[in-house]
């Protein structure tokens, strides 16, 4: 085996595969954690685009929700009791989470009104949301930081009993998928629920019909406008969860532009996942793996020839690895992943059209 590993090319490939497996085994929980905002953002896009509304404003929705959750939680921490309950929930954090959800819904309502009622260009609507959210949250964060608001803390992860995690293989799987904060756990539940509902419920059938052929859906009694509004607002809840993850679960503070393009990566995950919940979150896990792999190389680089080769690469390349993977993925699936037929097409009711 050592002779094979010493071969110039094949040896490096085998070493790389071994190191990648090691990263996954040792950092499985971190991969899922870092995938959470991307997965929730992709599910937000799924709710929008499956019903025919393009949403490139996920980045702005997440950023606004992150600010709303942090600010309301910080203000609440000044006068509300902070006794921690299950998963680290305190009253300020709970109120902050609700504020993050409400912010996501409000921004989604603006996008729905522009895209569905006004029938504005949906790409422009999403772009406006991204620009406005970045500008307003950055300005407000700068003003608020001068008063040094009190931190409300953050949510804690579920801790399994030691005897459970010590079970061979099963213990690792349970720890990898369950030892997370409530927002990450909610993503793992929501993706399964949405996958089942999409193909096994009346809502899923109607959503697919409206996204593919809204005129035909209207002829059988489906209210296309109401369904699109409902789905876009539900998508806002998911974007709100993704934003709250940044400031009350993964961290406990807000920085301008802290989403760092993850809303756009979520769109790539949605496309790569072929507009399905499981596919989108699966693609999000791929980006989470790329992020974790980049961190692992910078912190604990591999030994041997592989370490020497990777050490010659500037560390900035590994920091940008999720974005590089995004470009590669999009370049590979463009033209092969087909969106819903009515995606991005404003709809006008039959009676109004006449």
Short overview:
The protein is mostly helical. It has a single domain, classed as ABC transporter involved in vitamin B12 uptake, BtuC, CATH 1.10.3470.
Key attributes of the depicted protein:
354 residues, 0% strand, ABC transporter involved in vitamin B12 uptake, BtuC, 71% helix, single chain, globular, mainly alpha, 18 helices
Q: How does this model look, in words?
A:
The model has no long low-confidence stretch (mean pLDDT 90). The protein is built from 18 helices and no strands. The radius of gyration is 22 Å and the shape is globular. It is 71% helix and 0% strand. Helix 3 packs across helix 9. The protein has one domain: ABC transporter involved in vitamin B12 uptake, BtuC (Orthogonal Bundle). The protein is mainly alpha-helical. The N and C termini lie far apart (75 Å).
Fold topology:
Elements: H1 2-5, H2 10-26, H3 28-49, H4 58-77, H5 91-117, H6 122-145, H7 162-165, H8 170-178, H9 182-200, H10 202-212, H11 214-219, H12 224-249, H13 262-272, H14 277-299, H15 304-311, H16 315-319, H17 321-333, H18 350-353
Helix pairs in contact: 3-8, 3-9, 3-12, 3-13, 3-14, 4-5, 4-6, 4-12, 4-13, 5-6, 5-12, 9-10, 13-14, 13-17, 14-17
